[in-house]
Amino acid sequence: MYVPLNVGKHWISMCVNFVSRSIDVFNCEGLKYNKEMEPFAFLIPRIIKVVQSSKSRQELKVKQYTVSYAPMPYLLNKSSSDCGVYVLKHIECHLLGLDFSLVNDNNIREKLQKIAYDLWEAANDHELILRMAQYTPPKTITNPLVELE
Question: What is this structure's pTM?
């Protein structure tokens, strides 16, 4: 599961691997956000346990996920305002098994313009606008609160 995460005025991304019980963090600044990642490492296994069937739930051992940081090139994202684009491109590289060196300051400006254009194009797509106007959200089902151990 890929998750973009805002930490203050900066964006990072993470990949939660339910099989290996780990979280990979991608940060173009190369800094570690241990304080921000700890709640995820602690709560995700507990959430997984709660959604299991009652038989599986009793057998499932809750263990905190490990957090690791993907190595990033030194002084990446010198402008520091494009971290959102880096987040999307790091997710894309990880998902496709591509090397992170493809995400660099030399090509990120072009990617930023491409994403902006794609968003503008979608916002002006008459078919999409019509579908969104006709959209009705599904009714929510309320369940009693579940206490996490």
Answer: 0.72
